Amino acid sequence: MTTLADFTATTITGQDQPLADHLGSVVLVVNTASKCGLTPQYAGLQTLHERFGDQGLTVLGFPCDQFMHQEPGTEAEISEFCQVNYGVTFSMFSKVEVNGQDAHPLFQWLTGAHGDQVPAGDIEWNFAKFLLGPDGTVQRRYAPATEPADLADDIGALLAERG
Fold first, then answer.
1. What total of structural domains would you count in the chain?
2. Which residue of 2, 42, 92, 154 has the fewest C-beta atoms within 10 A of its own C-beta?
3. Is there a catalytic annotation at residue 64?
4. Residue 11: which CATH number?
5. Burial class for 50, CB neighbours closer than 10 Å (0-12, 13-18, 19+)
6. Which residues constitute the domain of residue 13?
7. How much is the pTM?
């Protein structure tokens, strides 16, 4: 069975990171953009990171320019934007595609079939969210407009199962 551990991604500073490093944590994967109406969700993601990080939540942000070119910047510009405007301290990665033939393998997997709570199909827009359990499997998928704060109960429940 495929899990998060089967993938590697490049950090926003250019290092390859095995995502297996995050096994054992509850992981929230989000495709992000700096020039989107949903961009203020960075603040909510940071709040989740601060609230649950010590309990075992890891937030992974993946900038994407596939939706009306709302992430035009370089990795350095994206990183600075996130830090200056939203105080982002959670893990950010290099820009990726999330849909189509050139989608990052992680997103090809995330958008596949994972059971009743996780509808398969292309990502609709920036800030789609995928919640993964400590075993690296996809537990839930949330629409882009879903505010990060609305995930708190599901995150708390997975953290409680983790022990």
1. 1
2. 2
3. no
4. 3.40.30.10
5. middle
6. 4-162
7. 0.97
